[in-house]
């Protein structure tokens, strides 16, 4: 009887030991799988294959915190990258703020990719500033200034495809300027003259020549880049504050758009809500908004300082302008 009881006890211990070993083995296997998946995802991220990295992370049945946090970071990255690729800087602003403030992962490969994307974003904003300024100057026939900004854009390193696209569009504007200057240098005009003879008592005749000359010139308008792609609607609200600046509302809005470093959509609406001796406060209502309202808003409020050319944006939470 005692021997039988001992055998039963030993059998129970063996089963318990086997179960514990199985659990330990499963935990070790899961950790190993997660490590393998993270390594593979990092390789894909380093080659800018973000969608592939997301798919790799999704294969983990029981994801660890590291896997979940990296997946969240890639979601923010994808949104920002997509808006930047479409040159939708008004939408990209909110996405990049979320992406750069995300501290959920310490994955070195992700952080390096995020830093690179942010650098591209900053350069795209600069490129848009040059392009928009050149376009507006061309529409106002300020050819020398337009050429300078086109040259600045052309000299930029195309670290993102959007910059290359803007450079190619700017070439059309530059060609239009060259065509105009060529037409000016070769234009001879047309001249017509009429001679009228009159008689005097001394029988002398005097010929009077009337000369009319006309010259025509035109700038090749085949490029849509030479036309303004944004419509500014300014509705000024009168206040007791009066600006010491001699700028008109149209001039202030033009300079604001040049300094903001943003390509606004054609349907965006601009409203000057306040003026002081140092700045114009401008509300921009965007024609379209992102489907994710938590990341972007349909409008932003800016302050433009004509003297320095600086533009600040209102933080909707604190009301401060940064």
Automatic annotation (TrEMBL):
Extent of Low complexity compositional bias: 185-246, 288-301
Keywords: Lipoprotein
Ranges where the record places region Disordered: 182-246, 287-322
Compositional bias (Polar residues): 307-316
Protein name (Swiss-Prot/TrEMBL): Lipoprotein
Species per Swiss-Prot/TrEMBL record: Lactiplantibacillus fabifermentans DSM 21115
